[in-house]
Write a structure and sequence with these properties.
Helix content is about 5%, strand content about 45%. The protein has about 375 residues and is mainly beta. The chain has a single domain, classed as Methylamine Dehydrogenase, Chain H (7 Propeller). The strands form eight sheets. It has a five-stranded antiparallel sheet with strand order 1-25-24-23-22, with no helix packed on it. It has a five-stranded mixed sheet with strand order 2-31-30-27-26, with no helix packed on it. The longest helix is centred in the N-terminal third of the chain and has 25 residues.
């Protein structure tokens, strides 16, 4: 009889603990930092996003104006051939905030900070007629780098397109604009390509993930596009000394202005860590349980050029109904968190009024 009583007590405790754990892991979590939730940022900034899940779209949202979501504006873009769109459009912004660029299909479009269209350049003007631009792009105030025909291309913005420099094949990459070199995750080799010298130095980065981020002061970060377990660690690299430091697990790791590394887990969690401590801290969690671990895609975390604004696009339920990818956010379970790291403010946009997002960036004047 005593055994039966003890067994019942043990089972009751186990069931209770399991229930508490399940509730804890699946409940809504929200912001973990002591930041102020606001409807409007006190610093001016423009949020730019693209979507081609339903139709080609470029949306602009002034997050320093009242009710930014309801007053978001759609750019007038030229007709885009959907058959030539098989991946998220690329976006690039000049550091001074004076121009931004969209890359959709075989067309690159330039806009100024007032959202006026400046010019459209077809891929044929760079020597690749009919070829689609890739998923990566980056800008300085004088140069533009982008993916085209599976290669990385550098273009001087004051020069005609025919003067562009075509580099090696690359899956994904990031650029050190000060030294005109690219950190390449290649189809065959990983390494550093110098545009000025036309040289490629191989590096053994093959097992470090495809996503990369670089700042001159902090170095190179390598991580996965998506992460669901502790096997997907982040690596900090000194590209000149070839030294590495392992950080916690996560994906799309990027430097913030505050010295933290920001990264995502699954499709619904945003975390941070200091490289010297390596201890991860939750920033924003849609739920305590990581979901969609292998269903992330390339542009769900984006910081501004000065690393003070952060955007995190998350979802907790995938959908399989869209045209060009096996999974995508279900509009009933997705959201966007915009964070001003400098002023410690954040805006939370959740629900079906929010458009689906493929890529995003920040336009901040006077950076």
């Amino acid at each position: 009889m005593k055994r039966l009583v003890r067994l019942i007590i043990v089972l009751t405790i186990v069931i209770g603990v399991a229930t508490i754990w399940l509730v804890f892991q699946t409940r809504k979590a929200g912001m973990f930092l002591k930041f102020k939730k606001v409807g409007v940022f006190s610093r001016p900034a423009l949020f730019v996003s693209t979507s081609i899940l339903l139709e080609p779209k470029v949306m602009l949202m002034d997050i320093s104006s009242p009710e930014p979501l309801s007053h978001a504006k759609e750019l007038n873009i030229r007709d885009i051939d959907l058959e030539n769109l098989d991946q998220p459009p690329a976006l690039a912004v000049r550091p001074d905030g004076s121009r931004f660029y969209t890359f959709m299909g075989d067309q690159m479009a330039e806009y100024d900070s007032s959202r006026s269209h400046i010019q459209t350049v077809a891929s044929g003007e760079f020597g690749f007629p009919g070829k689609a631009f890739g998923a990566c792009a980056q800008a300085s105030n004088r140069h533009l780098w982008f993916s085209l025909n599976d290669k990385i291309v550098e273009w001087g913005l004051d020069e005609p397109p025919t003067t562009c420099v075509v580099g090696p094949e690359a899956l994904l990459w990031t650029v050190d604009s000060a030294r005109h070199r690219a950190f390449i995750r290649g189809r065959l080799d990983d390494g550093i390509y110098d545009f000025g010298k036309n040289t490629f130095s191989t590096r053994l980065w093959q097992d470090k993930g495809l996503f990369s981020d670089f700042t001159e002061s902090s170095g190179l970060l390598l991580s996965e596009i998506s992460a669901s377990s502790k096997h997907h660690t982040i690596t900090m690299v000194d590209p000149d000394k070839a030294t590495t430091l392992a950080l916690p697990w996560g994906a799309q790791a990027q430097w913030g202005f505050d010295g933290y590394v920001y990264f995502v887990r699954g499709s619904n969690q945003l975390w941070q860590c200091k490289p010297d401590s390596g201890t991860p801290q939750a920033v924003y969690l849609d739920t305590k349980r990581v979901v969609g671990g292998n269903q992330g895609y390339l542009h769900v975390l984006r910081l501004s050029y000065d690393r003070t604004f952060l955007a995190f696009y998350f979802w907790s339920k995938p959908s399989t109904k869209y045209r060009y990818r096996e999974f995508a956010p279900d509009p009933s379970r997705h959201g966007l968190v915009l964070i001003d790291l400098k002023n410690q403010e954040y805006i939370e946009l959740i629900g079906e009024d929010l458009w689906l997002i493929d890529n995003m960036t920040w336009l901040v004047r006077g950076q």
